[in-house]
Design goal:
With 209 residues, this protein is an all-alpha fold. It is built from 8 helices and no strands.
Length: 209
């Protein structure tokens, strides 16, 4: 027994440094990959906007809307595991920062339409375009909020219900009046199914008890 116990203890001691080495190596690889991606992004931006490399496809004609179409979902997918892992450790200041970023983006959207700010590329895009762009990334990014025991908290139900009622309240006159800014006219039931069906697997996975 003593030998067996010593063997187990020795194995645990041997596995400790090995495990730490594996974790450190993984962190180092992630850090290196992050630095490489950042450098590549900087190179593309400088090459496209400053050096005018045509093959980058980046120029003054590329608007913020174009970038959002490319980056919205990848950013949401990248943020989801971080939020799901650390959402319980988020402090009020973190929430204030996220709220400030959301408010700043909302202000930019308003300015993009009212001023208008040409480089945003927002002018001409309807509510349907925004739903098509942001609905799936928004569901993915807020997945951590749904990662709770089932049924979800009352606040989550109230928010989801309010969003549904608001969408219906806009959709009905959007078709009947019609409100052109909604962009709903011409979209069929099948278009709505395609718009709303894709985010459902993410919510189902996150709401699983």
């Amino acid at each position: 027994m003593h030998v067996a116990g010593g063997h187990v203890l020795g194995s645990r001691r041997a596995n400790g440094p090995t495990a730490r080495f594996a974790v450190d190596r993984t962190r180092a690889l992630v850090a290196v990959a992050t630095v490489v991606l950042i450098l590549l992004a900087v190179l593309l931006i400088v090459g496209g906007y400053v050096l005018h490399w045509r093959w980058t496809g980046l120029s003054d004609s590329v608007t913020l809307w174009d970038r959002l179409q490319v980056m919205a979902l990848p950013i949401a997918l990248g943020a989801t595991p971080i939020l799901m892992r650390h959402r319980r450790q988020m402090q009020s200041r973190h929430r204030r920062v996220l709220g400030g970023v959301a408010a700043g983006f909302a202000g930019l959207v308003v300015a993009g339409y009212l001023v208008p700010v040409a480089w945003t590329g927002f002018t001409g895009n309807t509510l349907w375009d925004w739903l098509s762009l942001l609905l799936l990334p928004a569901v993915v990014a807020t997945a951590s909020a749904w990662a709770t025991t089932w049924p979800p908290p009352r606040t989550h139900v109230l928010v989801a219900g309010a969003a549904t009622i608001a969408l219906i309240a806009v959709a009905v006159p959007g078709y009947l009046v019609p409100w052109k800014w909604t962009g709903f006219t011409g979209n069929t039931v099948w278009d709505w199914v395609k718009l709303l069906l894709l985010p459902m697997p993410f919510r189902s996975c996150c709401c699983r008890p």
